[in-house]
Write a structure and sequence with these properties.
The structure holds 2 protein chains of 2 kinds.
Chain A (H helix, E strand, L loop, with lengths): L1 H26 L6 H6 L5 H10 L6 H13 L29 E2 L4 E2 H35 L5 H15 L2 H15 L17 H32 L2 H8 L4 H13 L1 H9 L1 H14 L5 H11 L2 H29 L7
Antiparallel strand pairs in A: 1-2
Helix pairs in contact in A: 1-14, 5-6, 5-8, 6-8, 7-8, 8-10, 8-11, 8-12, 9-10, 11-14, 12-13, 13-14
Chain B lengths: L1 H5 L3 H16 L3 H19 L4 H18 L1 H4 L36 H37 L1 H16 L2 H12 L3 H27 L3 H9 L3 H9 L4 H24 L11 H8 L8 H30 L1
The chains are: A mainly alpha, B mainly alpha.
Chain lengths: 337, 318
Amino acid sequence: MIVFIANRLVLMALTMVISSFLVFGIMEFSPGNVASKTLGPYASDESKKVLFEKLQLGDPLLVRYGRWAGVLTGLIEDPLADPALDLGFDDPRGHQYFGNFGYSTLFKAPVNDVLWDRLGNTAILAGIAFALIIPLSLVFGVLSGMAEGSLLDRGLSLTGIIFTSIPEFASAVFLMAIFVVWLGVLPGTSTLNVTPEWPLATHFVLPVMVLVLYDFGYVARMVRGSMVEVMTKHYIRTAILKGLPYRVVILRHALRNAMIAPFTVILLQINWLITGVVVTEVIFAYPGFGRMLLEAALFGDIALLEAATVVALTVAVTTQVIGDIGYMLLNPRIRFV
Amino acid sequence: MADQASGGKGATNDVLAWLLDRAHDADNRILEMLYSVVHGTLRWFLLLRESPAAMLGFVLIGFWVFVAVFAPFLTSYDPNALDYAMLADPTPKWMPWEAHWLGTDELGRDIWSRLIWGSRTVLMVAPIAVFMAYLVGCTMGMLAGYLGGWVDMLISRISDIILSFPVLILFIILITAIGPSALNIIIAVTVASSPGIGRIARGMILDLRNHEYVDAAKIRGESALYIMVVELLPNARGPLIVDACVRMGYTIITIGVLGFLGLGLPPPDPDWGGMVVKAKGFISIWPHMAILPSIAISSLVVGFNLLADGLREISMRD
């Protein structure tokens, strides 16, 4: 068990190092450098060159990556914060500490000032959506999985497939047409700028609906699959034959065993959910992590993009490890392999 | 069951019988393999007729394929031509014989024409991207599963790293860096999807490689390449075909999402996701501009997922 967890943690660290390096490598191909994007289209070549040198973009890839990693782990002071460079960068936390992601050239602020607010907003959105997706998909999955092939199963499965097939931007358009244009009861964007007309709660309704519609069918499918499998087991047959009420068989015997696989699958598929969040945030102009990531990528803001990648990867890989460990804990048969 | 189902198509059976004859005559194992693959696939599609949902999926896909193939005959409007007369009132007339029956967009471009030319783009890029991903993924999976050892170790670790990346973030970073174009979307899909395909293929190969027919081939002195491609791959096709169908759906969503995020094909050529994002600004005045392309992409993806579901059911019954 300990060996297994240690193994996973080492792999996790390796993944983070390689991926963060890859992001640096891929950004090399980006047309137009950060210096010219920061200064805008009307800047002179002279000033672009000065900024290019100040940001030390001319250094080899490995040097820049090493510097970024050093600053992040707090081993070295952020060289870009040097007042002599006159970049106007100032971090109230100091220039050398663990977790220093450097400066965002897009927002012209320390990454840590931008990142965590946005991440918090995303966590709220995703949390509400998750709190609705889980019970909804459990009900759908269990109802359709307990009698495979029945009319109810076919109806629910078809509904699930159709909802997961509709891309989020499409369902957003449909929902906006109904609730914003036709009924006029919800705001069309969710910028979290509260106005007297649209209180805070209304800002969450549409993004949460889009996320739930897109994701619940997917999770319900997994619950269904695992429920179908459990229903074929001998202990279910035994329970039915010894005369237990069907409800008791489902709730006490089937449901518990059917939960093992979906629990881990939900955690393992967190990447799927992250993707959904990014698109939804862009659609509704929600000030969250996903929109920030897209802006950073389009702008070529390497510090912010790296930070976002590291955070997204940490979330993804951590949940995957938790999923693996949870699977072992829930299923005693594979615990000591 | 097999005979009864394939009895439905006389001409196809003749072709298959001919193929089998040639294969036996020449003692040609490659032709024999081709026979079994073509026959098996045909039988699946004949079995599909029993599932109404899968048939609906088939019809939806068929509709868009038809429309994409015959696009020039189905509209008289150039998808990029501006019609200034329509700027005042681009609302649809909904009758196919009317001029601009699905209306125009904010620049006076015919929406029906943009939809059907857009289906061409989607139905070109998505299959090529999925095919490339399969080429790379199956190669990875076969090498890892059949050779094992350090090859397996290396391929599996690389796959793990790519798979732990949130897919869309991978796409955003890749496409913003190398620029939006059809080729780059194909490259990005290949990079992001092949590890998942490789994992399925590897699992299947591990399962299959201990069968007697593999030993027989080895004793015959066949090369590893032959055993992988001719003996193992055709027998692993079931889950791979189902996965390919699901993957087509998600690749279409991905292309749409990239278009929506402004990372799709460069304008002015029609692209469903790009149409939606531009029309979103006009949704309170002319909702049809955003709704119609949304319906188009949703129906195509629903088609692929329904078909995949039907195929999955059949492959489990086999």
